[in-house]
Amino acid sequence: MKLLNTILVSFVGIALANFTTQAGAALGIDGVRMPPDDGKLRVICFGAHPDDCELQAGGTAVLWAKRGHHVLFVSVTNGDIGHWREAGGPLALRRKAEVDKAHEILGIQGVVLDIHDGELEPTMENRRKITRLIRLWKADVVIAHRPNDYHPDHRYTGVLVQDAAYMVTVPFFCPDVPALKRNPSFFYFPDRFQKPNPFKPDVVVAVDEVMEQKLDALAVMESQFYEGGANGSVDLLPSDPAKQKARHQQVREGFARRNHSLADRFRAQLGDWYPAEKAKVIRHAEAFELCEYGAQPDKAQLKKLFPFFD
Questions:
Q1: Parallel, antiparallel or unpaired: strands 109-112 and 70-75
Q2: Between the CA of residue 119 and those of 80, 163, 226, what are the distances in Å?
Q3: Is the pLDDT of residue 2 over 90?
Q4: Is 40 strand, coil or helix?
Q5: CA–CA–CA angle 280, 286, 292 (5° rounding)
Q6: 196 preceded by cis ω (within 30°)?
Q7: Residue 44 pairs with which residues in a beta bridge?
Q8: How high is the pLDDT of residue 185?
Q9: 207-219, pLDDT tens digit by residue?
Q10: How far, in Å, are 47, 50, 147, 212 from residue 285 at the CA level?
Q11: What per-residue confidence (pLDDT) applies to 12?
Q12: What are the φ/ψ torsions at residue 35 (nearest 5 degrees)?
């Protein structure tokens, strides 16, 4: 009987170990090639919709990727109500195809979670999803919206990432994916909202050298930009080919102005990262604020996480 109990305990132990291994393998990110342990940075950005990360960090992502670092953009919802004319599964598939093409242009990877647009909530299930993704990617840098953004999906993406900022290191939270041994550094995308506190950049990155590549990536997301997304209309879609070309150019120039505006807005902070003469002539920039949660790098460590300044 004692021998039988020993055999049963051993069998159960092996079965549980196999189950845990299989569960961990099953939690791989669909369609994503997990990077090798090559000493390069691992960056994961969370946007609420398939276009948010690309708008906010597309240029910096290219700079990381060109240096061999590993970048993953995550859309936390599938964007299935983000258009004035179409919705549901067909729109979700269209936006997935668009953002996949954008990621090819940027030279990075991406994933779209199957959560309905406009319905994201800071639930325990979603906290686990975000925590698992950060762990699976073994992230050094995590970037997301601030939790006082205008859109509820943006806000709750920020809340979920904040909630994960501690839980990623807790072994018995989501034990099917190994906890991180050290906490990543968490950052926010910029916005203009003032309450309860305004965005204050800790890192400002010049993206002039890759701006055309970023604009090319944004251009393929026609449902959102050329057609206007949820707040567009048929009036944005001219039938004349010359006017269609002009509309595309209008959209492209608008995004260039957006990043030029960031460079002007944070011109003084650019001077903290670039030589004074260069800081004066930078035309396009992206900016990031360090979250109080997670690792707290000093300036020398920030230069290692954003290795573009020397």
A1: parallel
A2: 10, 18, 25
A3: no
A4: coil
A5: 115
A6: yes
A7: 72, 142
A8: 98
A9: 999 999 999 999 9
A10: 19, 21, 22, 13
A11: 31
A12: -70, 155
Residue 233 one-letter amino acid: S
| Single-letter code of the amino acid located at 54 | E
Indicate whether 6 pLDDT > 80: no
Q: 72 — phi, psi (to 5°)?
A: -125, 125
Structural domains in the chain, CATH included, are 39-205+287-305 (3.40.50.10320)
Mean pLDDT value across residues 298-302: 98
Q: Other CB atoms closer than 10 Å to residue 185's CB: what's the count?
A: 22
Which residues pair with residue 285 across a beta bridge? 206
Q: Write down the pTM of the prediction.
A: 0.91
Which distant-in-sequence residues (6+ apart) come within 8 Å of 280 by Cβ? Answer: 267
pLDDT of residue 310: 76
With tokens 């944004």, the residue in question is 218
Burial level of 293, CB count in 10 A (0-12/13-18/19+)? middle
C-alpha closest to that of 158 among 187, 116, 124, 192: 187
Nearest to 108 by CA among 221, 210, 209, 32: 32
Residues in CB range of 11: below 8 A, 6 or more apart: none
Q: Which contacts (CB < 8 Å, 24+ apart) does range 279-284 have? A: 282/206, 282/208, 283/208, 283/211, 283/259, 284/59, 284/206, 284/207, 284/208, 284/211, 284/256, 284/259, 284/260
Q: Among 143, 66, 145, which residue's Cα sits nearest to residue 108?
A: 66
Nearest alpha carbon to residue 158 among 182, 193, 205, 107: 193
Helix axis angle for 88-106 and 52-66, nearest 10°, is 30
How far is 186 from 168, CA to CA, in rounded Å? 12
Look at residue 307 and tell me whether its pLDDT is greater than 80: yes
Dig out the tokens for 298 from the structure: 């000093």
Which residue matches tokens 């993704």?
133
Q: Which candidate, 277, 303, 302, 287, places its Cα nearest to that of 146?
A: 287
